[in-house]
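Before a colleague's protein record goes any further, I have to sign it off. Would you go through it and say whether the fold makes sense for this chain? Take the sequence as given and treat only the tokens as open to question. The record follows directly below this note.
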Amino acid sequence: MCAASALAGDRERYARVFAACDEDSKGYLSREDFKVAVVMLFGYKPSKVEVDSVMASLQQKNSGVLLEEFLNLMTTKKSAQLYHSEIRQIFTAFDMQCRGFLTLEDFKKAFDSVAPKLPKRIIIEAFREVDQDSDGHVSFKEFESAMNYGQDEVSPLHFA
């Protein structure tokens, strides 16, 4: 299935969930309706902070989230989830010993396979930069932070 087709399918699913959660067909999701919709789509209840963030970001100041806003929010959330999953897969590929952290040797092997002509000093500098606590290991959190460096927030929604 191509990406455009998958996106259209996701938006249709989001619209069905919106309709199912729109109590009394009022045309918007209240705070509680929104929480239920997120549970239905992503399997967890959003925190008060997340819901407050969504409600504060609404274009109009009515009682809830309109369909188009909901579709955009859920599409952004899905993209963020996919990006997080990709970062996890890259980290796992680098972690050849399955230790849950990366060593300088892991970095060297990974870079050797994708950029064999890259000078070793650059790899060492990159490792030191990513190893924020200088313990000689790069945790997933440190790796993810490096991968996200410079990324602009696309949405006020910070889903885990």
